[in-house]
Write a structure and sequence with these properties.
The structure is a single chain. Helix content is 3%, strand content 43%. The chain is built from 1 helix and 33 strands. It has one helix at residues 12-24, and strands at residues 53-57, 60-64, 71-76, 82-85, 91-95, 99-104, 109-116, 120-126, 129-134, 139-143, 157-160, 169-171, 177-182, 187-193, 199-203, 210-215, 219-224, 226-232, 235-240, 246-247, 251-252, 259-262, 277-282, 287-292, 302-304, 310-313, 318-322, 329-334, 352-355, 358-363, 368-373, 379-384, 389-394. The radius of gyration is 20 Å and the shape is globular. The protein starts with 11 loop residues before the first helix and ends in a 5-residue tail after the last strand.
C-alpha cells in the first residue's frame, strides 16, 4: 500500500542550509561510499543516512540522506532496477533481473536477503506486513519487515498462484490474503484466502486486474478495465466506470481517508494514452468520481499526503493537491519543468515519492531531485546528481 507514514516534518531553514552545502559541492562530489560490482559496500559508511531515499539510474542506485538530500552512497547494479519501501526504517526492496533483493539503505549496501524469481513485480505494505508478487512464477511472499534487521531472510508465508501472471497480493490485518487471478494472456479478478490458505471469497468480474490500494477501515481495492473492485469485511463490491472501457490500473490509498485515488484511461487501442482525468473512489459510498486536472500525468505521479490529500504530479510540472472528499483541486504547487510521458514505461520521467509531510520529486532532465513541503507548498531543498534518475523511493516504517 502506498499510504504515507506521518514522519517528522522538516524545517525549511535546516534543510535549505544542508542542501546549499551539497549544491556547493556540485552534488555528486559528496562523500560517497565506494561499492564493489556485486553491490556490496567496500568500506563502512562514514556518516549514517537519516531517513534514506533511493533513486535508480542506468547502472545502479543512489542513496541519499532524506533530511539533507546529500548523496551518501552509490551502488553499482546493472540492468533495469525498481525500488519500493520494505516497510521498516532501514530497508528498501530492489527488483532486479534475478528477483527481489533487499537493500540496507541506512548502511548503503545490498544484503544477502533475496527472493529469486523471474519478473519480480509489485511490493505491497499493509498491516505491518510486506508482500512480494513474482510475476514469472506467480509466487507470493509475505513477511514482517522488522525482521529484516537480523540480516537473514524472515520466516514468512508463501503462496503460489494457480498460473503465473502480472499480479499483486496484499495481506489484511486478520491474516487473510487477497491475490489476483489470471494468466500471462488474461487477468480476470481476485480471490481471498484465510490465514490457513483456504479460499473464502472470489470475484472474476475485474478484467485486466492491476494494482492495489487500501483505504480507511481496511477497504482494499484492485483496478479493472471497467472500474474497480473493493474487498471489505469479507465481501467484494464492484464499482463500474462511467465508460464501457474505463481503466483504473494504478491507485494510491491512505489510512486517513475512505477515498482512493486512481488513474483513468478510456482508449483501449492507444499505444500510450495520456489522460487528464483521475478517479476518486469512495469506498464507503461505493461511488466513483472523475476529476479533470487539465494536464496529463504518468503511473509514477500518484501519491497521498499526510492527511489523506490526493496528490498528482502533472506534466505541467505542478503537484496538484486534491481534496478527496470534494474532488476540488485545492492548490497547484510548482515542482519541475513541463514534461511529457515517454512511450516506453521503463524510460525515465519525473517521479513522485511522498513520506510524511514531504514530497520528493525527481527531474531527470536536469539530473535533479527536489523536496517540497506538501502543506506549505514551499520547496525546501534541491540537489543535482551525477546521472539522471528513473525510479525514486525510500524507507517507510510502520506499514
Amino acid at each position: 500500500m502506498n499510504t504515507p507514514i506521518r514522519a517528522r516534518a522538516l524545517t525549511g531553514t535546516a534543510l535549505a542550509l544542508a542542501v546549499a552545502t551539497v549544491l556547493t559541492a556540485c552534488g555528486g562530489e559528496s562523500s560517497s561510499t565506494a561499492t564493489k560490482s556485486d553491490g556490496t559496500a567496500s568500506a563502512t559508511p562514514a556518516v549514517a543516512v537519516k531517513e534514506p531515499l533511493v533513486a535508480t539510474f542506468d547502472g545502479g542506485l543512489y542513496i541519499l540522506d532524506g533530511e539533507s538530500l546529500k548523496l551518501a552512497g552509490t551502488i553499482d547494479l546493472p540492468g533495469f532496477n525498481r525500488v519500493n519501501p520494505a516497510g521498516d526504517k532501514d530497508h528498501v526492496v530492489v527488483s532486479t533481473d534475478s528477483g527481489f533483493r533487499v537493500l540496507d539503505a541506512s548502511d548503503q549496501a545490498l544484503t544477502d536477503i533475496e527472493y529469486k524469481g523471474a519478473k519480480p513485480g509489485h511490493v505491497v505494505r499493509h498491516a505491518a506486513k510486506t508482500v512480494l508478487f513474482t510475476d514469472g512464477t506467480g509466487e507470493v511472499n509475505v513477511f514482517d519487515p522488522t525482521a529484516l534487521s537480523s540480516g537473514k531472510k524472515p520466516a514468512g508465508r508463501t503462496y503460489t498462484s494457480a498460473t503465473p501472471h502480472h499480479g499483486v497480493a496484499i495481506e489484511l490485518s486478520d491474516g487473510s490474503l487477497l491475490s489476483t487471478l489470471g494468466t500471462e494472456e488474461k487477468r480476470t479478478g481476485a480471490l481471498v484466502l484465510d490465514r490457513n490458505d483456504k479460499e473464502i471469497a472470489r470475484n472474476e468480474d475485474c478484467p485486466g486486474v492491476h494494482g492495489e490500494a487500501a483505504a480507511k477501515n481496511e477497504a482494499v481495492a484492485v483496478g479493472c478495465e471497467d472500474g474497480i473492485l473493493i474487498y471489505q469485511n469479507g465481501t467484494f463490491t464492484k464499482i463500474d466506470s462511467p465508460d464501457d472501457y474505463g481503466r483504473i490500473g494504478n491507485q494510491a490509498g491512505s489510512d486517513a481517508s475512505p477515498v482512493l485515488l486512481g488513474d483513468y484511461k478510456t482508449d483501449p487501442e492507444a499505444e500510450l494514452e495520456r489522460p487528464t482525468r483521475v478517479s476518486l473512489i469512495d469506498t464507503e459510498k461505493k461511488k466513483l468520481r472523475l476529476v479533470d486536472l487539465g494536464t496529463s500525468y504518468s503511473f509514477r505521479s500518484l501519491a497521498r499526503g499526510p492527511h489523506g490529500e490526493a496528490l498528482v504530479l502533472g506534466t505541467d510540472g505542478a503537484l496538484h493537491v486534491i481534496d478527496p472528499d470534494t474532488g476540488k483541486v485545492e492548490k497547484k504547487i510548482p515542482a519541475v519543468g513541463a514534461w511529457q510521458e515517454p512511450l516506453d514505461w521503463q524510460q525515465a520521467r519525473p517521479t513522485l515519492f511522498v513520506r510524511g509531510h514531504v514530497a520528493y520529486i525527481s527531474e531527470p532532465g536536469k539530473k535533479a531531485l527536489h523536496a517540497i513541503d506538501v502543506e506549505t507548498g514551499k520547496k525546501i531543498g534541491s540537489v543535482t546528481l551525477p546521472e539522471s534518475t528513473n525510479e525514486l523511493s525510500g524507507t517507510v516504517a510502520g506499514h
